[in-house]
């Protein structure tokens, strides 16, 4: 069971882990996919903006290129050239359009004014590429420049100065879904055209992408390490805000990069939220799953434990049930540590406890015994309730004397049962059979030997302990042989039905008979029912025997009937085992019909029972028997713990007083017992029940019973049981 739980935990943990892993992988894949898609979308939108910026700049550069086509060689432009330049200058809204002739080392604007080159780096930049774009810090203007070549040499440079604002406006256009901006930077990270997007200025107007701003250096870093072919999307953090940056070179403008950037949150926002949601849901699912699994494991474990308990432990006493006990005993013996004895104790008079003090109190007594015994055994020993009032114990011992003393003490404690609510305590004793185990013997064998020893003990008013002996062993063997022989007894026609007459008092005439079985064993001779009926009751074979007797009686009655004889009622003994057969009464009816015997000529003898849980069933069956018209007698009344109170509820016709009852009462000295029997008789008569006394042997007994108004007498005084045909010959003389 424990292994099962462990395996279950293992499987469940495995599943949860796999699920978690799968979830993690899926989340990562989704995240990647979604990130990639978002980035692609961002790049797409950024490229669109960058193209616009390129066109914006390109349109102006194109004019410069156009001018360059009509520019001459190494000399400054002439008046005509200047005039053409002037026209074009206006078309691009330049603040100043000029030309630089390196050989002359001077610049000339369209108004014919000479001026010096602002910065030699512009010339250098222009030489390095075809064009250049620069920022003039002094004037805040943007300069676009382009060179031209004459006779294979760079002949000069055209420069257009612009207000920065249109450039700034152009590059400040949002990049991604109406957010973000662009920058125009040189390869050193210097900003050429800055953004005016308010997103990049704080409340005080500080530019957030300035180098001093925390994180902005990273932007510079990005730019400085910008490579056209490299992975161009990067994520940087500026002042705690994360941005996605995507740069692209401005072809033909030496080293200039257009950088587009947008808040990561805008780019990934929806998708990250979605992924977050998916991940959240996933985490939630895992958490729920883990809880469910934990719950299932806890309750499952509990259920397993409960089930294990239910199938292995006795509800009433909490002691292990037979199967578990057997396993435990076998395991202990297998270890072979020390000497062991097996004891089976049953409570003498327990039925009486139940019938007089009630079933509930009976249960309390059993629980009390179980508690004492379970406390008395060590962990190397074991105790179990094998059935009703039977307790079995595996006990360790050193010497037999010690074992006996220990058992006596245990049993003495057990007899001191608690009182019931009315202050009455049951008087109980134990019959305890002990078998001294020889090593690792088979548990069934051990148990049956302890049982044999126990059964050898007669009923007495004290605790009795008996050890299994060789004699018992021989009896045991004999019993086993008998058991197997018995199964073939019907087939081999070894069972013989006897009848014992019943005499009506005072007429002293035969008014009926009781059918009693005998076993004519081929080797052992005639065997009395007391010797084999208990054996047949163990495996239920007794039920076949009873019906064999019943059918034999029916057949005989039919023969007699056919022979024109006046029938008498014959009673047949039926074991209590029939009570649980649904078709018991049905079979009685079927046979009586088959042999055409009126049910009133057949009487069913049932032994009184004080076991309460059988009571309802017993009453049901009794009424079925009565309804079918059969006679019904209660056998052996007074042998056990018969209750007159119960008698009132039972639909019996005949009360058969047990021989033992009579033995005590029939004695003339026993005035008190005689009174009891007289009262039982008169009470039964009050209830319209016929009283029959069994085992009447003496004339004194007969006289006493006659005086006490007993109705019927059965006993050796009149006749012993005899073979059925002898009976017929003797009592049906024509
Ligand atoms: P029981 O049904 O109480 O039968 C009466 C027993 O008392 C019979 O013993 C009978 O022979 C014996 N008996 C009758 N008069 C006297 C007497 O004056 N003195 C003495 N000492 N004994 C007397 P039996 O035939 O040995 O049967 C014993 C028990 O075996 C029966 O007790 C009954 O419980 C059981 N039995 C017998 N035949 C059957 C059967 O066919 N089916 C079942 N289930 N049980 C049977
Ligand atoms: Mg009987
Ligand atoms: Mg009897």
Kindly summarize this structure in a few lines.
The protein contains 21 helices and 26 strands. With 734 residues, it is α+β, with helices and mostly antiparallel strands. The chain has three domains: 262 residues, PAS domain (Beta-Lactamase), CATH 3.30.450.20; 158 residues, Reverse transcriptase/Diguanylate cyclase domain (Alpha-Beta Plaits, 2-Layer Sandwich); 242 residues, EAL domain (TIM Barrel, Alpha-Beta Barrel).
Architecture overview:
The protein is α+β, with helices and mostly antiparallel strands and 734 residues long. It folds into three domains: 21-282, Beta-Lactamase (2-Layer Sandwich); 322-479, Alpha-Beta Plaits (2-Layer Sandwich), CATH 3.30.70; 490-731, Alpha-Beta Barrel (TIM Barrel). It is built from 21 helices and 26 strands. It has an eight-stranded mixed barrel with strand order 17-18-20-21-22-23-24-25, surrounded by five helices. A six-stranded antiparallel β-sheet has the order 3-2-1-6-5-4, sandwiched between helices. A hairpin with a 2-residue loop joins strand 9 (233-238) and strand 10. Helix 1 (2-70) runs antiparallel to helix 6 (264-312) and helix 8 (350-357) packs across helix 9. The model has no long low-confidence stretch (mean pLDDT 85). It binds ligand C2E and magnesium ion (2 copies). Ligand C2E binds next to strand 18, helix 13, helix 14, strand 20 and strand 22. The site of one magnesium ion has 5 residues, from strand 22.
Mean model confidence by pLDDT: 85
Enumerate the strands of the largest sheet in spatial order, edge to edge or round the barrel.
Answer: 17-18-20-21-22-23-24-25
Would you identify the regions where 5 or more consecutive residues have pLDDT less than 50?
none
Largest sheet: 8 strands, mixed, barrel
Assign the CATH superfamily of the largest domain.
PAS domain
Query: What is the number of domains?
Result: 3
Return the structural class: alpha+beta
Name the ligand types.
Answer: ligand C2E, magnesium ion
Annotation, overall tally of beta strands: 26
Supply Rg: 58 Å
| CATH architectural label of the largest domain | 2-Layer Sandwich
User: What is the number of helical segments per DSSP (H or I, 4+ residues)?
Assistant: 21
Give the end-to-end Cα distance, rounded to a whole number of Å.
75 Å
CATH-defined topology of the largest domain = Beta-Lactamase
Shape: rod-shaped
Beta fraction = 15-25%
